[in-house]
Amino acid sequence: MASVADVMTADVVTLPPDATVSDAAGVMVGGGFGSVIVLQGRMILGILTERDVLRAAASEEDLRAVPIDRWMTPDPDTALPDLGTEDAAAIMLSRGFRHLPVVVDGDLQGMVSLRDVLSARIGQR
């Protein structure tokens, strides 16, 4: 069975908590990312996803002025690199999210998405 380390993306977009939702959306669209990790130094404060940006847009607030920490999911679940892809998929499906940061000793190593783990599963057949 593959591990999340085998399928994760090491290139993760990070922003500080005072970056704006507009900043985050621009980075996500420009890089083709579905989420950004909100960091304070090395500490993961939260995750902002496409769904969060959509919720923020629906609020009719000025997204050029609203900090991402207002809309992020704080203290996101994380995975160790050796977590199996099936276990990662089970976590994401049962908890209703599609992105799981991968960490070692509190340090961000990458990001694994539901698409990554399902693609790994399909490729094993």
Biggest sheet, in brief? 4 strands, mixed
Q: Stretches where pLDDT falls below 50 for ≥5 residues?
A: none
Helix/strand-derived class? alpha+beta
The SSE string, one letter per element, is: HEHEEHEHEEH
Features:
125 residues; alpha+beta; 24% strand; globular
Walk me through the structure.
The chain has helices at 4-7, 21-31, 50-58, 85-95, 114-123; strands at 14-15, 35-40, 43-49, 73-74, 99-104, 107-113. By secondary structure, it is an alpha+beta fold. The protein has a four-stranded mixed sheet. The chain has a two-stranded antiparallel ribbon with strand order 5-6. α4 (85-95) crosses α5 (114-123). The longest helix is centred in the N-terminal third of the chain and has 11 residues, at 21-31. The radius of gyration is 15 Å and the shape is globular.
